[in-house]
Structure formats: C-alpha cells, structure tokens
Amino acid sequence: MSNIYISRTNQKLLFAKLHLDCLKQAEQGSGWSKHAQIESFEESVLFHLVSSYSAFLREIAEVYRLDPEKISTRDELLTQMELQGMESPEVKELSQLAGSGSWLSQLLSAYRACWTAQAREQASHSGHASLSEIQVVQVNPDHSSDTEVIAQLEGWMNSMRELVDRQREGLKEW
C-alpha cells in the first residue's frame, strides 16, 4: 500500500487549517477587500475540507484493496465494496454521518452551495437583486455571522481530523 492518499488527506487538512487561519486574519482586517477575502477563504476552507474527505475515501479504498481512482464519493466506495462482498465499519460510520443534520452532511451541503448560482431574473424574483448576469448564492451575504461561520468551519475541520485519526487506527488492524 502506498501512502499517497494518506499524504493527500493530511495535506488537504493542513491547507484547510492554513486557509482558516487566513480567514480569521481577514475577519479582523478593515481593508476595502475584507468581505471578498472572507468569502474567498470561507470557500477555500470548504474546498480543502471536502478534498480531504475525498482523499480519505480513496485512502479507505486502498486499504481494502479497491481501485482508489474509481472512488470519488462515499456511494462509489460503498458500491465497490458491495461488488466485492465487503463491509466496512469506516464506510458504515461515514454513511451514518451522511445523514441529515450531521457535521459531515452540513459540510457537504455548504460546499455544494458554493456551486449554486441564479440567473438575474430568478434573483430579482427572490428578492436578491443583482446587476450581474449570475449571482452566486452566498451563505452569509451581509457578513453578520462571520464569527459563527468561522467557528462552524473550525468545528468541521476538527471533526474531520478526529474522524480521520480514529478511523485510521481501525484501518491499521485491517
């Protein structure tokens, strides 16, 4: 077994931490680009956390001798394991965490929201007028909840790190 996916998971968690630190600094700033920096770092933290999750799925696949290159989602990992007649406590836990309301489902939902955009006509009907052709849906458009968003991102990062560390201990036995 190579360590490429272990390294990738660790790297993405480190990147998330670095961007979270930059987000905290941006929140304390007062420059003209403060809000743009905050939004940018919020999305980059989400990107790196979801990327660490994806790398961790591949890490699990590699331990179970599945082709990690065919895995990008939990469902794909689950399907590959079922095709091989395998079960995994790690995937079972991930499936439970994918349920509504968990930190992981909230993280993945927030990440998907980064990719949501509305046409100008839809935005004006929903009360979100914009002069641009496309308006990105922002989780915290007026920045009134920056502190809470930062705390939530930090919580998700800590939960991801704890999940990875705990599950790696179990994977060592496999």
Topology, element by element:
Layout: H1 4-28, H2 34-63, H3 74-83, H4 89-97, H5 103-113, E1 117-119, H6 120-125, E2 134-136, H7 146-173
Antiparallel strand pairs: 1-2
Helix pairs in contact: 1-2, 1-7, 2-5, 2-7
The share of residues in extended strands comes to under 5%
User: In total, how many beta strands?
Assistant: 2
Largest β sheet strand count, sense and barrel closure:
2 strands, antiparallel
**Domain count:** 1
Overall structural class, as computed from helix and strand content, comes to: mainly alpha
Kindly state the percentage of residues in helix: 55-70%
Characterise the protein shown here.
- Strands 1-2 form a two-stranded antiparallel sheet.
- It is 68% helix and 3% strand.
- The protein is built from 7 helices and 2 strands; from the N terminus they run H-H-H-H-H-E-H-E-H.
- It is elongated and about 55 Å long.
- About 8% of the residues have low confidence.
- The protein has one domain.
What structural keywords apply?
7 helices, 174 residues, mainly alpha
Short structural summary:
The chain is mainly α and 174 residues long. The chain is 68% helix and 3% strand.
